[in-house]
């Protein structure tokens, strides 16, 4: 996960809580999004992106008995450059542990969850897109329903993973769904850049939202920044607030 690039002071003007188009997004049920018997594959650029993008949907799919595969592209160890508290060496151990705890809080079956860790380096995915496509392709099969970050999310790693996933999905004959993360925090004036015609809303009940929010707090390394060296929290309050919405939105 990467820091929000806009000021907390502009919160009222963000797309996620102000765009009028949000009220008109069609609702899609889980069974339509992922047909019976299909495998769901979640491709997360950084640790925590799987919860922020679709932590609610993961719970719904698990309850329906869908086979799940999670692909973590990076280990997130470069999230705090220059930090002594969160050195790259410490994060390389700590962040995978955070992810395990987060998935446990979601209630996912850790004993049967297929979890692939790519080991790619943060912030360097654009230069390795061809390799990334081949890596993702190795773990996909026809009929899979894939969820990953939107190609135009505005974060270099999110965009690169979105593009590589799209190419791999097309090559193997799977279905692609993209999920915006940082785009929701663009100013409302940029709402025209969102492909609203592709947007579908997955409704979440109170308990599903609560578990998702609880899982987000497992990422302790991302909740506090280091102002002394210019590092903002990678999970600032505005993101945590958005995590409590009673729905998730995917681009189909």
UniProtKB/TrEMBL annotation:
Coiled coil: none annotated. This is N-acetylglucosaminyl deacetylase, LmbE family. It comes from the Bacteria. One of its GO terms (molecular function) is hydrolase activity, acting on carbon-nitrogen (but not peptide) bonds, in linear amides. Transmembrane segments: none annotated. It comes from Pseudomonas lini.
């Amino acid at each position: 996960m990467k820091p929000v690039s806009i000021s907390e002071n502009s919160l009222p003007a963000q797309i996620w809580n102000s765009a009028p188009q949000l009220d008109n997004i069609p609702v899609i049920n889980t069974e339509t999004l992922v047909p019976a018997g299909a495998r769901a594959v979640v491709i997360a650029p950084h640790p925590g992106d799987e919860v922020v993008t679709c932590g609610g949907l993961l719970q719904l799919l698990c309850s329906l008995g869908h086979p799940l595969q999670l692909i973590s592209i990076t280990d997130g160890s470069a999230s705090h450059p220059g930090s002594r508290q969160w050195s790259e060496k410490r994060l390389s151990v700590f962040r995978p542990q955070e992810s395990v705890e987060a998935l446990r809080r979601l209630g996912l079956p850790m004993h049967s969850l297929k979890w692939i860790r790519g080991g790619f380096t943060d912030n360097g995915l654009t230069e390795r897109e061809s390799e990334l496509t081949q890596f993702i392709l190795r773990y996909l099969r026809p009929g899979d329903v894939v969820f990953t970050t939107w190609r135009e999310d505005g974060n270099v790693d999110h965009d690169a993973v979105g593009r590589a996933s799209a190419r791999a999905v097309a090559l193997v004959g799977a279905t692609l769904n993209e999920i915006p993360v940082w785009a929701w925090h663009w100013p409302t004036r940029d709402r025209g850049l969102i492909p609203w015609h592709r947007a579908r809303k997955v409704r979440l009940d109170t308990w599903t939202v609560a578990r998702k929010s609880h899982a987000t707090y497992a990422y302790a390394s991302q909740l506090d920044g280091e102002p002394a060296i210019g590092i903002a929290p990678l999970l600032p309050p505005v993101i945590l607030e958005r995590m409590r919405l009673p729905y998730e939105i995917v681009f189909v």
